[in-house]
Design a protein that fits this description.
With 242 residues, this protein is of the alpha/beta class. The protein has nine helices and ten strands. It has one domain: Alpha-Beta Complex (Spore Coat Polysaccharide Biosynthesis Protein SpsA, Chain A), CATH 3.90.550. The strands form two sheets. It has a seven-stranded mixed sheet, sandwiched between helices.
Length: 242
């Protein structure tokens, strides 16, 4: 693993700042961190480079545009959400060029949130979005995100605003547009829903969890991310004390 890439747009940058800080705490300067963004978003301290372009106003299309901009290499690039923290050194090994994160929790999707999606009526979420988009590892295949972007652009405009990334990915998988392997969601995208505690973060670290991500409103993330980051600092400081 030689680099991590994340997408972020907007003036409020506390969430990606916490993420990049956690990466540097765990990896130091041994891993490249790339911010994918629009023309106006501030650069996040600690990244190696910022790749900018004029993006679509719709967030789902914009992220796929930004991901498509990055030239892939022979080593994996780990594409993640920005509302994440690294707990342990990132290790990803597979023979596949594309690694996806399977959804492990199934539930009946709300077809009226954040607007009406008739395609989701009476559907379970794994029926329409079986893979999460918060963590993907890709190498060599520079057409992967371009394919997803084309699919998303052909979807009804409501998917350009929300869900378009996961729905496009599900469409591509169901049509066998590429071969893929799987990431371990317990290790590579462990979802935190409750208010984090030092004990919880420490236990996840001991179990070898590499990446955690936070669900809930942005206001909660702006509290929980820095709090958890301090817990990670405590773990790193404790290790360095010996």
């Amino acid at each position: 693993m030689n680099r991590i890439a994340f997408f972020w747009v907007g003036d409020q940058t506390s969430i990606p700042e916490a993420y990049v800080t956690s990466i540097r705490l765990i990896h130091g300067n041994t891993i490249e961190v790339i911010q994918l963004s629009d023309l106006d978003t501030p650069s996040i301290a600690g990244v190696n480079q910022v790749l900018r372009q004029k993006l679509c106003n719709d967030i789902m299309v914009a992220r796929l545009e930004a991901y498509s901009l990055l030239e892939l290499t022979e080593e994996y690039t780990f594409f993640t959400d920005a509302d994440c923290l690294l707990l342990n050194p990132l290790v990803i090994e597979s023979k596949n060029d594309i690694l996806l994160t399977p959804r492990t929790i199934n539930f009946k999707i709300n077809a009226n949130y954040p607007e009406h999606y008739p395609e989701f009526e009476e559907k379970m979420i794994s029926d329409v979005m079986p893979f999460l988009f918060g963590a993907l590892a890709v190498k060599r295949n520079n057409f992967f995100f371009q394919q997803l972007l084309k699919i998303c652009q052909c979807l009804p405009s409501r998917f350009h605003r929300w869900y378009g990334d996961q729905v496009s990915l599900a469409h591509a998988v169901s049509n066998q547009l590429f071969d893929f392997g799987l990431l371990n969601p317990d290790i590579h995208l462990n979802i935190i829903k409750q208010v984090p505690t030092q004990t919880h973060i420490h236990d996840l670290h001991k179990k070898g969890v590499q990446l955690i991500t936070f669900k809930g409103p942005t206001s909660d993330k702006e509290i929980n991310l820095p709090l958890s980051l301090q817990y990670i600092r405590n773990i790193v400081d404790s290790k360095n004390a010996y």
